[in-house]
Request: fold
Amino acid sequence: MTFTKRLRDGIRRGEITCSVRIWLHPRVTVGHRYRMEEGEIEVDSIQPICFSDITPRLARESGFVGVIDLLKVAKHGRGENIYLVRFHYVAPSRKPAPRPPNNP
Reply:
């Protein structure tokens, strides 16, 4: 699942936790994680919705100014089915610095 660059900071801050997608069929799975350039998103739920469910409030919750702004980005390929994907951001794990070898 990819996001436009302008949404990525809001996702990392936890301000954006859902996305409207217009697909032929779901392209994500609940519980799976999908990479971003830094960290991942984990899908919490996916549900089919109707066009009338795409409100200005949902558009803003998804990181867009309004419904038209959202719809310009939401459609992928020949998609006809509308899905609401809820997710949360998972920050990259920090690996501990390597320990120096023990010298006798």
